[in-house]
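[job 0412] stage=fold_complex status=start
inputs:
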Amino acid sequence: MRNFNEFTITNAVMERLKDARDARMHQISAALVRHLHAFVREVEPTFAEWEAGIDFLTRTGHFCNDKRQEFILLSDTLGVSMLVDAINHRSAEAATETTVLGPFFVQHAPECALGADISGGMPGEPLLITGSVRGSDGQPLAGAVVDIWHSDSDGYYDVQQLDEIGDLAMRGRFRTDENGGVRCWSIRPAAYPIPHDGPVGRMLEAQGRHPWRPAHVHFMIAAPGHEKLVTHIFASGDRYLDSDVVFGVKDSLIGAFAEKPAGQAADGRVIRRPYCHLHHDFRLRPDPASAANPAEFASA
Amino acid sequence: MRNFNEFTITNAVMERLKDARDARMHQISAALVRHLHAFVREVEPTFAEWEAGIDFLTRTGHFCNDKRQEFILLSDTLGVSMLVDAINHRSAEAATETTVLGPFFVQHAPECALGADISGGMPGEPLLITGSVRGSDGQPLAGAVVDIWHSDSDGYYDVQQLDEIGDLAMRGRFRTDENGGVRCWSIRPAAYPIPHDGPVGRMLEAQGRHPWRPAHVHFMIAAPGHEKLVTHIFASGDRYLDSDVVFGVKDSLIGAFAEKPAGQAADGRVIRRPYCHLHHDFRLRPDPASAANPAEFASA
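[job 0412] stage=fold_complex status=done
writing structure:
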């Protein structure tokens, strides 16, 4: 097989895939080649544009390290992450809606007691987070593993400033009590631009887009017999709710960061300054196939 | 705009592109989003597969350095490079056909006198390379800049073994004489597998494909008023002519590496052992818009 031209090359590449390791590898490879070639045929890149594309991907790769995942940012900002999320959550179960994981999840966040302060001493308005975890049938799920993480009051995550703050902060792993309850103290997160000093930032600029996300708290919740829930709760009233750069906002995931006066808080703690309180009731989809051990399941 | 689902997300992302820097950026971004989403919709990746994709791109980026361009290998092995090449060479001019640049071109190869030995002392069967450079009207092009580069007799390029050999070898930049002639001595290159110890190698393995290219010599030829020619001449009889991993072979680019006895060679040099001789007549497409300075043009 030789002498390929723009009309014959796609089938030539497809033909080479006939001995792929398995049917799924064949399917994904063939679809990738077809769609990638269709993209090239549509835009007809010059050599300079092709080189710019190679360079963009290379710089994106070079920006990735253990604290920064530029390809996830790329997937998020092109709407691919939310599309994959939607495809994987088609069932109409009465369960909490999902959104992107984002690039700031950390596998082994500190295990914390219910009610703990996870702010790590970061400055900001105190925030009480409370929630309940139930199955889609409404039964409370005791012992569910709840990962909570969020930005500081300037919009930065701990992993973006580890050199300065020295340790993880504003994240923790909890286990729900016998009523499915979870609670902790932290500080109120701010809206923030996704890291935009790299190739994805330059892409957004060229596309005429801002890099902002509305303020939110991340939750990942795992319980035996249920699908792992990956979601956020967004701050109601945030100016970026309608233009989240990663397309992650759903109305059902908007929650009030309710302003409260100094005094005794909902968890019994007495607090001497005004604070805010975010509460959300989560419902997990049943998944009989999920692992029995929630800790194992949470870190899958 | 919120609450995107798998049916609405694509238009939502397109909508965000309305303030793109210019029409071309808008066109490329919109096409990228549409085709990328179509790919995702077709294969419906699980989260684990999406993560594997992110990881593949990240590892591919991390493999790129000043001696290795893994994303070009990816483009080459998926047939994208030859597709871009075909799209950019539609004219039916009587000109030499083109093929991929490949990842081993070096911007500033040593300037060499005509007839020079560029083997750098690498072991192998001596190879005399001769050629002529003409316009599509048949007129010889004097002073054209000709870059020549190829692998050693084990199939490795100089840049893959710089630590061992210490300097560039088997590459040089020449200027054609008043008859459009170019000539040099080197060693006969071998067929070789593209570098396959990285992510692209693992992809080829999973796709059930070998990583080999037929033996060839690269040529890049630039002359004022003409399109820069990027091509190879492949060794006739090579076992990989029909399965070049980057789909680059065209019949018109296959040349004889003619075996010659010891004695006086075509360039007048007396050689005491058998050698081989590769000759090719190149024709460049006219391009009135091309830069007047060939050196500048060659390194563009």
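[job 0412] summary: Chain B has two domains: 9-44, 70-298.
[job 0412] exit 0
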